[in-house]
Specification:
The complex is a heterodimer of chains A (about 280) and B (about 180). With about 280 residues, chain A is mostly helical. Chain A has twelve helices and four strands; from the N terminus they run βαααβββααααααααα. With about 180 residues, chain B is of the alpha+beta class. Chain B is built from six helices and eight strands, in the order αβββββββααβααα. In chain B, the strands form two sheets. In chain B, strands 6-5-4-1-7 form a five-stranded antiparallel sheet, with no helix packed on it. Chain B has a two-stranded antiparallel sheet with strand order 2-3. In chain B, helix 2 crosses helix 3. Classes of the chains: A mainly alpha (about 280), B alpha+beta (about 180). Chains A and B meet through strand 1, helix 2, helix 3, strand 2 and helix 7 of A and strand 8, helix 4, helix 5 and helix 6 of B.
Chain lengths: ~280, ~180
């Protein structure tokens, strides 16, 4: 049965929510620069609370999926990935949203949320890992801080700074504004590279990233909303071009070490039943 | 249908074992159809399963020309093929066990559900749409946070020990790769 769904750009959305302040561990108290509006560490702490507030408001509309096995699976996979990062000891949270849309959200300091419908499109555990690794990559790269700094000090391209997200706006509103703007292509490419390295370190196949991107390109490209999406994001072609040297150089020869090929299909089957 | 697949696998087995070395070995990352030209509008041909061994020939504007083990030549997106390192390829060409491993993956692909359009439950269809970003921002957030949902998010979090067990159960092996350039 073919079912129409509303799809939301996973990358833009990931860029959006992850475009919140990532407070550095052990940040001292401080304030916001009155000239630039850029946060000092104490303001960053405030923004971390704002990030939690934003996630809470999101979950109020789109709750977590009632599937304990699937939630445990995603949490364990995601946590395994983060154990292979330099922030292995940080608090990390992963969750599946009970949503028919396609989205991945990454919110500081370490929350990655993915929709049920997006997971259903993935064929292998390596691809599930790739989706989570991208969210983790943005958080590890500290892109949220840069995006928030930019939002605080300059005009917003989508929403006027006078109405939302300008200097002096509340952290929640500023974060929401950054949500709408997303990351720069350079930040996306950087997160891709971090994700590829992370996948290989954790025993997965970095080629799952381009496989995932190519799957996204199978979406209806004639849909004007898809065209709008492509206009604000690097194309899969550009992303693979940037990643090519790494995949064929330092990461060459590292396929997936996963031997239990059945656990993702089993989880996916449960998600399918929930979707029906 | 199943017999055809078995016959095809048998032909591929013979080709694989007989062909031995290939000049530029690569394999398909994800199942796709061979295109007749490096163009999204080009006619598409036979379905190639994920992990199918290929010979990579030439490249053109993001496309890779490939030859299958049965001799079919066509084009796939460059990011859909994994270029196998020479050392690994040489080992694969010389090692019967490697050949069988790759064959097993190939046969799995043949019998598996590799066509995206046929994926059970897949919603990748012409009916897909994407919401505008501004619409999303206006409708996605409630006025206030849901504390119970936030608490649940905390509750479902896993421990490093559980994550390590998960990796062990899956046979995942860590590799020594720099986490940053």
């Amino acid at each position: 049965m073919i079912r129409a769904i509303a799809v939301l750009c996973p990358i833009v959305l990931a860029a959006g929510l992850s475009a919140c302040v990532l407070p550095p561990p052990g940040s001292p108290a401080g304030g916001s620069d009155p000239q630039t509006g850029v946060d000092s560490p104490a303001q960053a702490m405030t923004s971390a609370a704002a990030s939690r507030e934003l996630v809470g408001r999101l979950l109020a509309r789109t709750p977590l999926l009632e599937d304990a096995a699937a939630q445990a699976y995603v949490n364990r996979l995601g946590r395994w990935l983060t154990l292979n990062t330099e922030q292995a000891d940080s608090d990390w949270r992963f969750g599946i949203l009970d949503s028919d849309e396609l989205m991945v959200l990454a919110a500081p300091p370490g929350t990655v949320l993915v929709s049920r419908e997006l997971l259903l499109l993935l064929e292998t555990e390596d691809e599930v890992a790739a989706v989570l690794a991208q969210g983790i990559g943005h958080l590890l790269a500290g892109h949220p801080q840069a995006a928030l700094d930019s939002a605080a000090s300059g005009p917003l391209p989508i929403v006027p700074a006078t109405t939302i997200g300008g200097i002096g706006a509340s952290p929640v509103e500023r974060l929401r504004a950054v949500w709408e703007r997303g990351f720069t292509p350079a930040q996306v490419f950087a997160a891709d590279a971090l994700a590829a390295r992370l996948l290989v370190r954790a025993g997965y196949d970095a080629y799952a990233l381009p496989a995932y991107w190519s799957m996204l390109e199978e979406l209806d490209a004639d849909d004007p909303r898809v065209a709008a999406l492509l206009a604000v994001l690097p194309s899969a072609e550009q992303r693979i071009e940037k990643l090519q040297a790494l995949l064929q150089g330092e990461l060459a020869g590292y396929g997936s070490t996963l031997s239990n090929q059945l656990r993702w299909p089993n989880i996916r089957q449960g998600l399918l039943q929930a979707a029906r | 249908m199943r017999k055809q697949s078995i016959d095809r696998a048998a032909v591929l087995l013979l080709s694989l074992l007989a062909s031995g070395a290939s000049a530029a070995p690569c394999e398909l990352v994800r199942g796709t159809r061979l295109a007749s030209a490096p163009d999204p509008a080009a006619a598409s041909g036979m379905q190639i399963p994920a992990a199918a061994p290929l010979d990579c020939l030439e490249q053109a504007q993001g496309w890779q020309k490939v030859r299958t083990v049965s001799g079919q030549i066509g084009w796939v997106r460059r990011y859909q093929v994994r270029v196998l390192p020479t050392a690994i390829a040489n080992e694969a060409q010389g090692g019967f066990r490697q050949q069988l491993t790759r064959l097993a993956r190939l046969v799995t692909g043949l019998f598996g559900d590799t066509d995206p359009a046929q994926r059970s439950g897949s919603t990748v269809t012409a009916t897909i749409g994407i919401r505008g970003l501004s619409e999303d921002a206006a409708t996605r957030l409630a006025a206030t946070a849901d504390p119970m949902q936030l608490e649940r998010l905390e509750r479902i979090a896993t421990t490093p020990e559980q994550a390590t067990d998960f990796a062990r159960d899956g046979g995942l092996r860590q590799r020594e790769i720099e986490s940053r350039p």
